[in-house]
Amino acid sequence: MPVAGGCGGSWGIAGLLYVVIGCDVTTTVGSGAKGILLRYDPVANTWSTRKAAPSAHQFPGVAGIGGKLYLVGGKNSTGVATNTLHVYDPATNTWSTKAPLPAARYNLIAYPVAGKLYAVGSNDAFAGTVNTVYIYDPGTNAWSNGPSMPTARAGLGGGTISGVLYALGGSTSTAAALRTTEAFTP
């Protein structure tokens, strides 16, 4: 990678990997967030820098829907949780700002299911880990509340298989590591 860093996320679109750099290796976690966007072409084995996000995102949810990259929440450059939603269009190398999350979140996962974006779990600014699920509809640019997960968690992994959304592991607000897997079928 041309830029060292982490605290972000990645997603593949049209055979290319888009990587969001949330912080660099010299940054203290929770401060100095970045919004750098890189693209990796595995066929040419080359990296390129794309247009940076409109604001910093550290520990955001990152997912793709309809050939676009969605960047959800995260911490800003002063370490404060945000509710922003930015959408990157690879065809035009531009970002747009969409309807904000209903609440500020970071350390969450975001995955598409049936054309909608699911923002799952996370830390919030006040309550520690949460079990909330928010659903974004790109067609209406609106969020709705989904059913809560049985277990509050942040820093979780996840994925979708055959229209089922999985929440894997993570930790609780007391930093206890979780081994649970929960599945949701919209």
Largest sheet: 4 strands, antiparallel
Looking at CATH, which topology of one domain would you report? Neuraminidase
Q: Note the beta-strand portion.
A: 35-45%
Overall pLDDT score: 88
Q: How many angstroms does the end-to-end distance come to?
A: 36 Å
CATH H-level name of one domain... which superfamily? Kelch-type beta propeller
What structural class do helix, strand and pairing data support? mainly beta
Number of helices: 0
CATH class of one domain: Mainly Beta
Please write out the topology:
Elements: E1 9-13, E2 16-21, E3 36-41, E4 46-50, E5 61-65, E6 68-72, E7 85-89, E8 94-97, E9 109-113, E10 116-124, E11 128-137, E12 142-145, E13 157-161, E14 164-168, E15 181-184
Antiparallel strand pairs: 1-2, 2-3, 3-4, 5-6, 6-7, 7-8, 9-10, 10-11, 11-12, 13-14, 14-15
Could you write a compact summary of the structure shown?
The protein has 186 residues and is mainly β. It has strands at residues 9-13, 16-21, 36-41, 46-50, 61-65, 68-72, 85-89, 94-97, 109-113, 116-124, 128-137, 142-145, 157-161, 164-168, 181-184.
Q: Overview of this structure, please?
A:
It is a single chain. This protein has a domain at 57-184: Kelch-type beta propeller (Neuraminidase), CATH 2.120.10. β11 (128-137) and β12 form a beta hairpin. By secondary structure, the chain is mostly beta strands. The chain has strands at 9-13, 16-21, 36-41, 46-50, 61-65, 68-72, 85-89, 94-97, 109-113, 116-124, 128-137, 142-145, 157-161, 164-168, 181-184. 0% of the residues lie in helices and 45% in strands. Strands 1-2-3-4 form a four-stranded antiparallel sheet, with no helix packed on it. It has a four-stranded antiparallel sheet with strand order 5-6-7-8, with no helix packed on it. Strands 9-10-11-12 form a four-stranded antiparallel sheet, with no helix packed on it. The N and C termini lie far apart (36 Å). The protein has no helices and 15 strands. The model has no long low-confidence stretch (mean pLDDT 88). The radius of gyration is 15 Å and the shape is globular.
